[in-house]
Write a structure and sequence with these properties.
Low-confidence stretches: none
Number of helices: 1
Radius of gyration: 29 Å
Oligomer: single chain
Shape: elongated
Distance between the termini: 86 Å
Strand order of the largest sheet: 1-2-5
Length: 133
């Protein structure tokens, strides 16, 4: 009884086509991975450095069935003006108020309380986003 060999002897016939294809795929994958990380880093840098205005909602208070007050802390470059969009929702998730508030204060850090008139009783408020003008 003789043993049947299923593979070619190692080193005798050079690299197989599968090994060459694997090497090409590894190189292409590495290049694409580096490009993706570079693009991700560039977008992150652009978002953080080029952002001239940003805000954070400190708290909100449901004052009545038709009003919500939202306290914002805004950080921006000196002299930059902007607009922040605020939104309030009812218990069922329906939007009951939306307001674009202007940020005209020349200071770099601004704390301000904004009032939103609602169409129904609100249970939450949120800062949608801010943009420089």
């Amino acid at each position: 009884m003789s043993a049947v060999r299923e593979q070619l002897p190692e080193g005798r016939y050079g690299r197989s086509a599968d090994e060459a294809a694997d090497r090409k795929l590894k190189i292409i994958g590495g290049v694409l991975g580096v490009l993706f990380l570079g693009l991700l880093g560039w977008f992150g840098w652009y978002y953080v450095v080029d952002s001239k205005i940003s805000a954070e909602m400190i708290k909100f208070d449901v004052v009545s069935a038709t009003e919500v007050q939202v306290h914002l802390e805004i950080r921006k470059d000196e002299g930059v003006k902007g607009v922040c969009t605020l939104r309030s929702r009812s218990e069922d998730g329906a939007e009951v108020a939306r307001k674009d508030v202007r940020i005209d204060d020349p200071a770099t850090r601004v704390d301000h309380v904004f009032s939103l008139r609602t169409t129904a009783r609100a249970t939450s408020a949120e800062l949608v986003g801010c943009t420089a003008r």
